[in-house]
Amino acid sequence: NAPAAPQTPVRVETVATGIVNPWGLQFLPDGRMLVTERPGRLRIVGKDGRLSPPIEGVPAVYARGQGGLLDVRLAADYAATGSIYLSYSEPRGPGVSATTVISARLELAVSGGGARLVDVRPIFQQQPAQRTSHHYGSRIVPAKDGTLYITTGDRGLGSPAQQPDVTIGKVIRINRDGSAPKDNPRKPGWAAEVFSIGHRNIQGAIVDPGSDQLWTVEHGARGGDELNAPQAGRNYGWPVISYGRNYDGSAIGVGSAQEGMEQPVYYWDPSIATSGLALYDGDLFKSWKGNLLVGGLAGARLVRLVMDGGR
User: Fold this and answer.
1) What does residue 304 show for φ and ψ, rounded to 5 degrees?
2) Following CA atoms 184, 169, 146, 189 in sequence, which dihedral angle do they give, to the nearest 10 degrees?
3) Nearest alpha-carbon partner for 244 in 297, 200, 299
4) 135 is catalytic
5) Cross-strand bridge partners of residue 121
6) How far apart are alpha carbons 121 and 161 in whole angstroms?
């Protein structure tokens, strides 16, 4: 029951139109933007708002339900290497898909033609694949130490989020080449790449550059969207505990708390359908420095969370 933050006047401007289900966005060093379209296209948005033709070399995606081409991130050494990461729902057979992350090199100009991806290779492939077409998670977050955090959803199945040997409903931590860091939790029965378990569908994730702390927002069901600061080897409860209810109004699991399971830093009830997450460190709104900005799909809103000592 935190008090509401003071309102700040803002002016909203449309930068570009005609983009179909934009999901991920990254600014290039020259100020242009890389934007994913969920049906499977990666585009460059110019400073004038013009869309490039689709970039060549993007893998085929499973564009059904919530699936498709999802997040995009620049590698830390992008300026020198052109390396980027993409996450998407990968088709693994008729009606079967799973979250996959690739690394690739972006070539912006190819003999007078359009941009293209080269040296494409998978560095993470969620296991096992499923027949559902939602809750893919899919945020990619580079950390200071060179590792990558990847979020995966529970694929709408619930219980696999509590199974530490599968990569469903988890925060994943890998090296750039896809191997599992030696200092991952690696608890008995845990897959080597699993960092934390018990997540429903994380679609917002950032690392605080000051503290190197990972922050995530994940969808609840009917209420119970969560802000978390995931720690290695911890269990965040889904679907055993939640502050939400099932869509039919019935209770979820055992309630809102259980020993051995973590509490969220903040939760929303009713749900705002949390989406992207950003840490504000700009100068335009000086009073916002250190605040978190959270996208809300319900009502197409942007929410500001004033942070104080991790609360």
Assistant:
1) -110, 125
2) 20
3) 200
4) yes
5) 103
6) 26
Task: Check if the beta carbon of residue 52 is closer than 8 Å to that of residue 65.
Answer: no
Identity of the residue numbered 272: I
Q: Strand, coil or helix: what is 247?
A: coil
DSSP for 134-173? S-----EEE-TTS-EEEE---TT-SGGGG-TTS-SSEEEE
Tell how far CA 115 is from the center of its chain. 25
Catalytic residue among 134, 135, 199, 219: 135
- Give φ, ψ of 288 to 5 degrees: -90, -10
Scan for tokens 């705002």, then name that residue.
272
Task: Per residue of the chain (311 residues), give pLDDT as tens.
Answer: 677 888 888 999 999 999 999 999 999 999 999 999 999 999 999 999 999 999 999 999 999 999 999 999 999 999 999 999 999 999 999 999 999 999 999 999 766 668 999 999 999 999 999 999 999 999 999 999 999 999 999 999 999 999 999 999 999 999 999 999 999 999 999 999 999 999 999 999 999 999 999 999 999 999 999 999 999 999 999 999 999 999 999 999 999 999 999 999 999 999 999 999 999 999 999 999 999 999 999 989 999 999 988 89
Give CA–CA dist 273/220, Å, rounded.
7
In angstroms and rounded to an integer, the radius of gyration of the C-alpha atoms of the chain is 19
